[in-house]
Amino acid sequence: RAEALANAYNNMGNVLRLHHADRVDEAVLAYLGAAHWMPQLDDAWYNAGSLLVEQGGDLMRAAHLLGRAVCVAPRSPDNWRALAALLSSMSSMSLMSSKSSTTKSSFSSASPSSPSSSPSSSSTIPPSKT
What we know:
Structural class: mainly alpha
Strand content: under 5%
Number of strands: 0
Distance between the termini: 45 Å
Oligomer: single chain
Radius of gyration: 21 Å
């Protein structure tokens, strides 16, 4: 019974993912429903994590879900590839962000401060979206 429910939830997630792109949250919940009924179903963890990555969702949550897929099926190269690609991407984003912060703080310290500005009212440039 649990296996049938897990497969049904996983299939529901696939249908939502493929035919209802505006229902990403529901698809992720369907995949997590599959994982609830059958925690050893690595496809459920992989599908939920990879969907979050595809849609630009919560990448930390995606990393956790893909990590679960790896734990459940450590011999699956797809699970490892997806997790490695995400972690690499997150690392690159982190490096770009820290370089941006370093450049920004160097620029701020080199700029003369205006007499009317106080530290609490100084404006900061938000990092660019990539």
